[in-house]
Design goal:
Helices cover 47% and strands 17% of the residues. It has 356 residues and is an alpha/beta fold.
Length: 356
């Protein structure tokens, strides 16, 4: 089974250790990072979604205009645009960029953030709405004649998209609550986890597979990590400690106060961090523990060879997509392309050859 590497395109240069400088949307930076990911051998790049961020679809559209092969994973929050309209927008973009579009469904676990876009319903209701949304989205993409739909959250008569894609647009899906996993089993092509321990990954993969089996489906799995590489293992751990100190300084400058997260994914990362800062072979939870596991914040630390071997361990647990981004976003993406990505592909190809 082939593997996939996904990078990350932001609208500007920043991370937990780099404060934002300048406008939140900088076209030249988007272009530079998109080209760097393509040259580094990434398959896709994620464009994130937040209630106050530039539009992820338009960033992906611009990035596609300056690349030829790089594909895109567009984070999308269901419930704020009609699914029929969103389906046509994604199908249109996919036609323009030559079939390079995938959609990452992020229902959202932070009530306060969601209210910024006008959503006041609870978490379980949000996932019920997402269920309807994805049902309509796929039908809009595939129906060859107008269709009707009547649900609790959406109702359509004669819905139909004249634009069709050459191949299905993949749906990636995030969310760790019971309600989220139920919806993932029904709709997701790829279920996305953050960088958890081997034990946690094994458990979630089993749960999602069981849920998908109820619908006669199979799901692939993605894991998100922040690899920290250096020429030697000692140097890599020293770099991790420097990153932690820098993250503390930036958080203090911003007045960031750690808060207990509302979403299950962050709670799972904090549960791992509570076991220690170094877990399994080389999973590091330092930044996740510091900042309350706000998003993808756990790392694999070591030489490129050591981190590649750890990624193979996750592959053996069912992971076939790796979403990797660095604390030094542009420089790390370039470095991953020189070392980590080709090494991991080589190791997994050898593993597949042994099985075959």
């Amino acid at each position: 089974m082939s593997i996939e590497f996904i990078g990350y395109i932001a609208g500007h240069h920043s991370s937990e250790i780099h404060p934002q400088v300048g406008p939140v949307l900088q076209p030249e930076y988007v272009e530079k990072v998109a080209r760097a990911h393509e040259e580094a051998g990434f398959d896709r790049a994620l464009v994130a979604f937040h209630s106050n961020s530039p539009d992820s679809t338009l960033i992906a559209s611009h990035a596609a205009s300056v690349t030829k092969k790089l594909q895109f994973l567009i984070a999308h929050r269901p419930g704020f645009a009609a699914p029929t309209l969103a389906a046509r927008q994604f199908a249109t973009l996919d036609t323009f960029n030559g079939g390079r579009t995938a959609v990452h469904i992020i229902t959202g676990g932070d009530d306060k953030e969601l209210r910024g876009d006008g959503s006041y319903i609870g978490k379980d209701e949000r996932y019920a709405r997402t269920d309807e949304y994805l049902t309509v989205l796929r039908q809009e993409w595939t129906a060859d004649k107008p269709f009707d739909f009547k649900g609790e959250y959406y109702q359509f008569e004669g819905a139909h998209s004249a634009v069709k894609t050459a191949k299905p647009i993949p749906l990636y899906f995030g969310g760790s609550s019971d309600a989220a996993i139920e919806v993932a089993g029904k709709h997701a092509d790829v279920y996305a986890l953050w960088g958890e321990t081997y034990e946690q990954v094994r458990e979630v993969v089993a749960r999602v597979r069981a849920e998908a089996a109820k619908h006669g489906r199979q799901v692939r799995f993605s894991l998100s990590l922040r690899p920290i590489l250096a020429a030697t293992e000692d140097q890599a751990w020293a770099r991790a400690e420097r990153i932690l100190e820098q993250a503390k300084e930036v958080a203090a400058q911003k007045g960031v106060v750690r808060k207990e997260p509302a979403n299950e994914g962050s709670k799972r990362l904090l549960a791992a961090a509570a076991q220690g800062s170094r877990l399994d072979k080389r999973l590091w939870t330092g930044v996740a523990g510091l900042l309350g596991a706000k998003g993808n914040s756990t790392s694999l630390v070591g030489t490129a060879e050591q981190v590649a071997e750890a990624l193979v361990d996750y592959y053996d647990l069912g992971i076939t997509t790796f979403l990797i981004r660095g604390f030094d976003p542009l420089e790390d993406a370039i470095d991953y392309g020189r070392t980590l990505i080709p090494l991991t592909r080589q190791l997994i190809a050898q593993r597949e050859a042994q099985v075959a």
